[in-house]
Amino acid sequence: MIRLACLLLGWVALGVGLLGVVLPVLPTTPFVILAAFLFARGSPRARAWLDGHARFGPHIRNWETQGAISTGAKRAAVLMMVAVFALSVFLDLVWWILLIQAVCMAVAATFVLTRPAPEP
Questions:
Q1: Does the pLDDT of residue 15 top 90, yes or no?
Q2: Residue-range domain boundaries for the chain
Q3: DSSP collapsed to 3 states, the chain
Q4: What are the angstrom distances between the C-alpha of 23 and each of 4, 13, 98?
Q5: pTM score
Q6: If you ran DSSP here, which 8-state letter would residue 117 be given?
Q7: CB burial class (10 A; 0-12, 13-18, 19+) of residue 59?
Q8: Geometric angle at alpha carbon 47, from 107 and 108, rounded to 5°
Q9: Could you say which of 28, 54, 66, 68 has the lowest number of CB atoms within 10 Å?
Q10: What separation, in Å, do the N-terminal and C-terminal C-alpha atoms of the chain show?
Q11: In whole angstroms, what is the distance from residue 69 CA to residue 65 CA?
């Protein structure tokens, strides 16, 4: 039963991560890493598929082996945060929402930028 729950939650996490590819307010990487974690407990076959995926596999391996995030992924994450914040300012959101958004994004950007780049 636990394996089935992990497998189902893994697919949900992967689906949410894929939505993050097109929705700038939703992060992709944490959900793909969560999916890898859940697949490891729910389905070795699904985990092997994700590990072998040309787009996601290298990022998962870098995170698991080195705690590393590629420079390109860091750049994309921070640029998307800046773009979303700029859109929020453009939409003239109330100040307290902008403040909460700025604090959350600053914490997230600090975390991302302080991770090492993967070693070849």
A1: yes
A2: 2-66, 71-114
A3: CHHHHHHHHHHHHHHHHHHHHHCCCCCCHHHHHHHHHHHHHHCHHHHHHHHHCCCCHHHHHHHHHHCCCCHHHHHHHHHHHHHHHHHHHHCCCCHHHHHHHHHHHHHHHHHHHHCCCCCC
A4: 28, 15, 19
A5: 0.74
A6: P
A7: buried
A8: 5
A9: 54
A10: 39
A11: 11
Amino acid at 69: I
Tokens standing for residue 44? 């070795």
Q: How far is CA 89 from CA 23, 92, 94, in A?
A: 18, 5, 9
How do residues 41-86 score in pLDDT, each as one tens digit?
A: 999 999 999 999 998 899 889 988 999 998 988 898 888 889 889 9
